[in-house]
């Protein structure tokens, strides 16, 4: 990387990490981005809300043991887990009020905007936000 350039900032939503865990379509892109973050070529973030969304989804579809394994794996990833304060919750609530998306996805979008990052997802629900100022998204499984 050139001196004086800033690192690319990447936000992951739950869809991306679940695709990685299940080795679903496009998971290699998610894996490769995590490697770049681990190599200090990029910065990686995820909202704590999205982490617990992964936890409950795996617990619901599989079992608590597997959700605990996934949580441990996420903690080992080179991602900064952002715990929301009231200001962040309000930013997510404003996004949720304007767009048709889940509450957890609103946190991923708010984090993406606040970090001036690109959201990595396979969730087409974010299409509605593509004109939101400061919001950038890359679909890892876009056909």
Question: Would you mind describing this structure in some detail?
Answer:
It is a single chain. Helix 1 (14-22) crosses helix 2 (27-38) and helix 1 crosses helix 3 (48-61). Helices cover 51% and strands 15% of the residues. By secondary structure, it is an alpha/beta fold.
What is the CATH class designation?
Alpha Beta
What is the count of DSSP helices, taking H or I runs of 4+ residues?
Answer: 6
Oligomer: single chain
Instruction: Tell me, rounded to a whole number, the average pLDDT.
Output: 94
Indicate the radius of gyration in whole angstroms: 15 Å
Task: Give the CA-based shape.
Answer: globular
Largest sheet: 5 strands, parallel
Annotated CATH architecture: 3-Layer(aba) Sandwich
CATH fold name: Rossmann fold
Structural domain count: 1
Strand % is: 5-15%
- Poorly predicted runs are none
Helix/strand/pairing category: alpha/beta
Could you state the CATH homologous superfamily? 5'-nuclease
Percentage of residues assigned to helices: 40-55%
SSE pattern: EHHEHHEHHEE
Features:
single chain; 143 residues; alpha/beta; Rossmann fold; five-stranded parallel sheet; 6 helices; 5 strands; globular
Indicate the topology.
Layout: E1 8-12, H1 14-22, H2 27-38, E2 42-47, H3 48-61, H4 64-76, E3 80-82, H5 86-98, H6 103-114, E4 118-121, E5 137-139
Parallel strand pairs: 1-2, 1-4, 2-3, 4-5
């Amino acid at each position: 990387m050139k001196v004086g350039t800033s690192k690319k900032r990447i936000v992951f939503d739950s869809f991306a990490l679940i695709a990685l865990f299940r080795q679903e379509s496009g998971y290699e892109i998610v894996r490769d981005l995590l490697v770049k973050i681990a190599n200090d070529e990029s910065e990686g973030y995820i909202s704590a809300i999205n982490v617990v969304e992964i936890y409950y989804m795996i617990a619901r579809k599989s079992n608590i043991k597997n959700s605990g394994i996934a949580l441990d794996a996420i903690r080992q990833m080179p991602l900064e887990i952002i715990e929301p304060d009231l200001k962040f919750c309000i930013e997510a609530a404003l996004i949720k009020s304007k767009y048709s998306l889940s509450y957890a996805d609103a946190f991923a979008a708010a984090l993406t905007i606040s970090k001036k990052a690109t959201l990595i997802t396979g969730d087409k629900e974010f299409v509605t936000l593509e004109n939101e100022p400061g919001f950038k998204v890359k679909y890892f499984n876009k056909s």
